[in-house]
Amino acid sequence: MLAVIASNGLKLGQIYSMLEDQTKESINQHSSWRFSCFWVVLLSIIAIALTLLPILFAKDLAERMIFGWPAPFLLVAFGLPLLYLLIVGLYAWLMHAREQTES
Questions:
Q1: Using an 8 Å Cβ cutoff, are 47 and 36 in contact?
Q2: Between the CA of residue 76 and those of 2, 6, 26, 69, what are the distances in Å?
Q3: Among positive and negative, which fits the CA dihedral 59, 61, 64, 68?
Q4: CA–CA separation, 68 vs 64, rounded Å?
Q5: How far apart are CA 15 and CA 38, in angstroms?
Q6: What's the distance, Cα to Cα, between the start and end of the chain in Å?
Q7: What span, in angstroms and rounded, lies between the C-alpha atoms of 69 and 64?
Q8: pLDDT digit string (tens) for 85-103?
Q9: Cα(32)–Cα(99) distance, rounded to whole angstroms?
Q10: At what angle do helices 80-102 and 12-56 cross, to 10 degrees?
C-alpha cells in the first residue's frame, strides 16, 4: 500500500498522516461499538428481568387488586409495554447523545 501511495507522489509525512487518520477512525469506531454493545446487553437484561418478575411473583401478587384488576395482569398488560417503550427511548437518547459527542 505504501509503495502505491509513494508512487503517486505523496510525501512520507502525508502517508503517515493518512495512516494516523485511519487508525484514529478505527479506534473511534471500536469505542462506539463497545458503547453500543454495552447498552444493548444491559437494557436487554433489564427487559428480560422486567418480563420475568411479574411471572415469578404472580401467585403472591394475585391477591392484590389495582383499579379492580389483579395486579399481575395489570402489570403485564399495561406496565410492561410502557417500560419497554422507556427502554427503547433511553437507548435512542443514549445513541443520539453519543453521536453528538463524536461529531
A1: no
A2: 61, 65, 43, 11
A3: negative
A4: 9
A5: 35
A6: 29
A7: 8
A8: 999 999 999 999 998 987 7
A9: 9
A10: 170
CA angle 39, 42, 44 (to 5 degrees): 105
Q: What is the pLDDT of residues 1-55, one digit of tens each?
A: 545 555 555 566 666 666 666 666 665 667 888 899 999 999 999 999 999 988 8
Cell of 8: 503517486
Determine how many CB atoms are found less than 10 A away from the CB of residue 72.
19
Q: Do the beta carbons of residue 41 and residue 48 sit within 8 Å?
A: no
Integer Cα distance of 28 and 38 in angstroms: 15
Amino acid at 77: A
> How many CA atoms, within 13 angstroms, populate the side-chain half-sphere of residue 2?
8
- C-alpha cell read off for 9: 507522489
Cell 392484590, residue?
Answer: 64
Q: Phi and psi (nearest 5°) for 63?
A: -75, -25
